[in-house]
Design a protein that fits this description.
The protein has 493 residues and is of the alpha/beta class. The protein contains 14 helices and 26 strands. Strand 1 and strand 2 form a beta hairpin. Helix 1 crosses helix 2, helix 2 crosses helix 3 and helix 6 crosses helix 7. The longest helix has 17 residues. 48% of the residues are buried.
């Protein structure tokens, strides 16, 4: 195990003139990012930031984010990212809950914070005003205890206040090494980045590529799928990492062709369910594309399982097996292993499992029992050990004695003509009147839902068909991209 700031130092020593990142019209080499990080680290130290201080990053994906991230780690400080799409209430909560010593932002973002947030004397540093010394070659870095907290990632808070997940250097290093074990990245690999570095999936992309000496191309065009397709087409990226719902949106763009995907070697999918039909459609566009379906949690430093690309068709719908260094079991409500094929809760153990939740011992003890992380995800395992996720314990729809996964229904709806994306929930007009309700976003609002009800009759049994279908402009999601099902259950949008 090792300190994760060494990833940048080691890759700089091996590939100083390789490009590390493209951001805002500029390429930055490993030497430039390393020197800027060491330079900024000295400035932070002069401002009183020291080992174990919690420091908030409120910065978009950028070279500046990477510089600040590693600058803090060189000091032994704790990085606390706040996703820039987070609402004011949660920003305020995280600043107070983390007892932040300092907040690093940009001139533009700090103006917003000063207007809407009570900083309570927290030191704010605008990183885009800093003139970095890009000639620092100092290798005299300090080693810190591997069990020290390196990163606090706040969960998305779908039903309650966000929780601060404390991840140590050991947690992050174990997970990074395991991901590299199956992705086999090296200094020739490059990635189009659209996922925020401020949540676990995005953070894993940053760490794996910096450790491997790879290249990150940052795009801010996520809201414009056509631009993402054009960027993919115009560059020779090795990989692209995204979530299932965004893949579905990309594939539904007008005049979709194979051109954006021909240069790619691999794609990864995590964070939510990915439609098998969408994966098959990708392979129809590039038969040589390696597709990695993955599963994990923030509390596991990102990753718990992956499905080998060559097993995609043999184990349709599976999220694979445990990654290297992780043990996984499927258990009942009493923590006992269930038999193969039976549904239970996924529990996991390994060096990647979090230290706990910040300032929340009770929630930590509910989540981690005897060293096992209780994920809250329901799944079953086949005779070969492959895992199939059914859904979240709290999201299952109970109707006519059936326990129904909303994900299954959503996958069927999303295949239908003119449906861009959907969200399905258990809905109550009153206590005893249970309905299945589907919220749908249309690709073309002028065409309506077309033959959606008839299409669903062909693919879903009667007890799984939505009783109510409501068209909305946007599915409410957390900053991590997860559907806010609790909001949909409680209100009409």
């Amino acid at each position: 195990m090792g300190n994760i700031q060494k990833y940048l130092q080691d890759s700089y020593s091996r590939f100083p003139m390789n490009d590390l990142v493209y951001s805002k019209g500029r390429y930055w080499t490993y030497k430039e990012i390393y020197s800027a990080s060491r330079s900024f680290s000295k400035i932070l130290k002069e401002h009183g930031v020291s080992e174990k201080d919690n420091v908030v990053l409120y910065i978009d994906n950028s070279a500046e984010y990477i510089i600040a991230y590693f600058a803090l780690l060189f000091l032994g400080a704790v990085v606390v990212p706040i996703n820039v799409s987070m609402n004011v209430e949660n920003i305020q909560y995280i600043l107070e809950d983390s007892q932040a010593k300092c907040l690093i932002s940009t001139k533009f973002k700090s103006a917003y914070l000063n207007k809407h947030i009570d900083l309570n004397g927290i030191l704010m540093i605008e990183i885009d005003k800093i003139a970095f010394d890009l000639d620092i070659l100092d290798f005299n870095t300090k080693d810190f205890d591997d069990d020290n907290t390196a990163l606090i990632l706040y969960t998305s808070g779908t039903t309650a206040k966000p929780k601060g997940v404390m991840l140590s250097h050991k947690n992050l290093d174990a997970n990074t090494s395991s991901i590299l074990d199956y992705l086999k990245l090296n200094d020739k690999d490059s990635l189009l980045v659209t996922l925020s570095f401020g949540y676990s999936y995005g953070n894993s992309l940053l760490l794996t590529h910096v450790k491997a000496g790879g290249f990150l191309y940052i795009s801010q065009d996520t809201m414009f799928p056509q631009n993402i397709l054009k960027t993919l087409e115009a560059n020779n990226f090795s990989g692209f990492s995204t979530v299932g719902s965004y893949l579905n949106i990309l594939l539904k763009q007008d005049n979709i062709s194979d051109k954006p995907f021909l240069n790619l070697k691999y794609m990864t999918f995590a964070g939510e369910s990915t439609s098998f039909n969408d994966l098959k459609a990708l392979l129809d566009l590039n038969l040589n594309l390696k597709l990695y379906v993955m599963y994990g949690q923030t509390e596991a430093s990102a990753r718990l399982t992956y499905l080998e690309p060559d097993m995609l068709f043999l184990k349709k719908g599976s999220c694979g097996k445990a990654i290297k260094g992780v043990d996984i079991r499927i258990v009942d409500d009493l923590g006992r292993d269930v038999v193969l094929g039976m549904t239970g809760e996924i529990v996991a153990k390994g060096d990647n499992i979090m230290k706990g939740y910040l300032n929340d011992i009770d929630s930590t003890e509910e989540k981690i029992k005897d060293g096992w992380l209780y994920t809250g995800d329901l799944a079953y395992q086949d005779e070969d050990g492959y895992i199939y996720i059914v859904g979240r314990k709290n999201d299952l729809i109970k109707y006519l004695g059936h326990r129904i996964s909303p994900i299954e229904i959503e996958n069927k709806i999303n295949k239908c003509e003119n449906i861009l994306e959907s969200a399905v929930v258990e809905w109550h007009k009153d206590v005893d009147d249970v309905k299945i309700k589907a919220y749908v976003v249309l690709k073309d609002e002028t065409r309506g839902i077309l033959n959606l009800n008839e299409d669903l009759k062909q693919v879903l049994p009667p007890f799984k068909r939505p009783h109510i279908i409501e068209v909305i402009r946007e599915i409410p999601k957390t900053f991590n991209g997860k559907i806010k099902r609790a909001l949909l259950k409680d209100s009409d949008l």
